Amino acid sequence: MAGELNVTIVGNLADDPELRYTQGGIAVVSIRVGSTPRTFNRQTSTWEDGETVWVRCTAWREVAENVAQSLTKGSRVVVTGRLKAPSAYQSAQGEARASLELDIDEVGPSLRYATASVTRRAREGGASGAVAGDPWGDAPAVSRGAAKPAEDTW
After folding, report:
1. Which three-class secondary structure string do you get for the chain?
2. What is each CA distance from 104 to 11, 78, 81, 89, 97, in whole angstroms?
3. Bridge partner residues of 33 (DSSP)
4. CB of 63 within 8 A of CB of 77?
5. Closest among 79, 60, 69 to 9, alpha carbons compared
6. Mean pLDDT, the chain, integer
7. Is it the case that residue 26 has pLDDT exceeding 70?
8. Does residue 71 carry a pLDDT above 60?
């Protein structure tokens, strides 16, 4: 949709992902990502932490289930999505605050300080003629050594 602000956030999960299901059975997960900027102070030759920015992120359907199954509290993640307008609220101490929210398009572990093992999930309700291991279930079955289909211009 035009006019949406797409952003990428790198940070750590504050809590374990919270997976819920709507009344219609659609999975939705909420995660809270904290990102703290660090700057090098040349006068003291030390790194200094800035103020942590917290972003509430939401994913739906298969992405939600994958997030809940794959990520845990403290995981360093890279999240890309559409930023929502901040919502203002008042804290318990009476301070005015605003919360940032993001609708997740893509999310994954950051591999800067860790490794990950990726396992593809088979898509549920795929096409009947799908190739084994094809997560989208829409690839035509082609045997090895077979000629290219006639409609293939390449």
Report:
1. CCCCEEEEEEEEECCCCEEEECCCCCEEEEEEEEECCEEEECCCCEEEECCCEEEEEEEEHHHHHHHHHHCCCCCEEEEEEEECCCEEEECCCCCEEEEEEEEEEEEEECCCCCCCCCCCCCCCCCCCCCCCCCCCCCCCCCCCCCCCCCCCCC
2. 14, 10, 4, 23, 23
3. 13, 55
4. no
5. 79
6. 81
7. yes
8. yes
Q: Which two tokens mark 2?
A: 């035009």
Q: How far apart are CA 16 and CA 32, in angstroms?
A: 9
For residue 50, what are the contacts with CB-CB under 8 A and spacing of at least 6? Answer: 36, 37, 38, 39
Copy the structure tokens of residue 92. 């318990």
